[in-house]
Amino acid sequence: MSLGVLALVALLPIISVFGLIVLFRWPATRAMPIAYLITCFLAFIVWKVPFSQLAAASIDGLITAASILYIILGAILLLNLQQESGAIFSIRKSMFLISPDRRAQAIIIAFLFGSFIEGSAGFGTPAAVAAPLLVAIGFPAMAAVMVSLIIQSTCVSFGAVGTPILIGVSAGLNGQIEVVNYLNTHNLDFALYLNSIGGKVAIIHGITGTLIPIILVVMMTRFFGQKRSWKEGLSIFPFALFAGLCFTVPYTLTGVFLGPEFPSLVGSLLGLLIVVPLAKAGFLMPRKVWDFPTKETWPQDWIAQKIEEGNDLKSEISIFRAWLPYILVALFLLFSRLWPFLKNALASVSIKWTNIFQTSISTSFQPFYLPGFLFLVVAGMAIFIQKMSRNQVRKAADRSFRMLLGPAIALGFAVPMVKVFINSGVSGGLDKMPVVLASATAALIGKGWTAFAAVIGAMGAFIAGSNTFSNMMFSLFQFATALKIGAVPVVIVALQAVGGAAGNMICVHNVVAASAVVGLLGREGLLIRKTLIPMIYYLIMAGIIGIFMLQIFKI
Q1: Could you tell me the pTM of the whole model?
Q2: pLDDT tens-digit series, residues 99-158
Q3: Distance set, CA 73 to CA 125, 398, 407 (Å)
Q4: Is 2 helix (H, G, I), strand (E, B) or coil?
Q5: N or C: which end of the chain has fewer CB within 10 A?
Q6: Contact 400, 81 (CB under 8 A)
């Protein structure tokens, strides 16, 4: 079978997911079981993957899905407790004290606060925090999820304290013969080379990501405004550009000079410290305040399932007390990733299954290190902070578990599908499906690869659900392709990492998880169609910047 035909066959799982969810508008709960069966069939018949390998990959996927559901449960429970206590009303009031303009609120909560959560925790956690907060202060659920997904781009390459670079790219390149020979030829150290890749990633993101705040507000006013106007979003351009620069300037400098661990954390913290007080003072804000249409006129697609209702009996809760659980989430996530003692203590408990069914596949579950544990701890604290009754806690818990059923079905098939896809190259003499797709693309494009390298990263994130996994899968392929076409490997690998971050905007895992937290399950196709727009912008910008960078960097 030729490479082209094999690539078309390998593309079928992606086509099935995209077609069923985006084109036919099936909910993920129906689409993902079919996509999983198609992937298993192709892996078994064409790639000759033994049944034991399929079963092992599926179990690995189920364990990973359980980890994601663990995070979703904690985030949903905390939100529902805040709803029941009435704390949400105080949070809404606090945001209106900063600015009543919904565009500014989206920039502050989704872009800046969400980037901070990504920098500390990663793995889709920002949407679990930012989306329900936006819903709580009066955003349509669809708008809240859309903007929370759009920000899953610039900050992602340095999320979870640099994991996509320090683990993803490193695991893909370290010790590989092509990389070792190249480094020896140019007298380079791998650790410094990895930091150099991180620096290039920061530069590309820094330029491209500066416009993400204006893009998210323009899309918000266009799709969720009463006038369906791009212009209403553009009218806040000075403030949005200023907020973008407050994040990307320190972010880029940190990535270039300090390494991959802290760009998202430093950029978001400095951005919040600068932007929040200036927004409150009206700096660069348009005179006309923008808001959504009245709730009674919202289409059904915008509205969450039993999530916008709250208890107003305790709306006298102080602003500080109302925000305290979310402040604690941010602090706990930060300390659990940056304080070595706490990090090691939480990570020391790991449930592992190695060499599942005598295959090379292993999996693990870290119940205390995952953000879900910290969400649950803070949820328990919130009961006492908000002085909640037993009946309120029971209602919040019941609603949370009911909301988890749909995501459990969708993710229970989506993640195993991904694991089968990326573990398909074990026999039959064929490369795994993602590598076949990437090889065919490189052969087709040739010298123009630089403009398309980021697309492979995005494809990997869409498939694998993670920038880290995308980098693991494709960093070596990107490096080898760069050598083959005479390009500078550091730039091409950086484009891979940037594309992997951009792909998080349409990644099925993230879309399902973010939708689940606000009770919006079943409308994933609508969200992906919208977030395709900023993702395409990101990939085009990355390709253009990459072409220019090849003229500047020679090693």
Answers
A1: 0.83
A2: 999 999 999 999 999 998 888 777 677 877 788 889 888 999 999 999 999 999 999 999
A3: 12, 11, 10
A4: coil
A5: N
A6: no
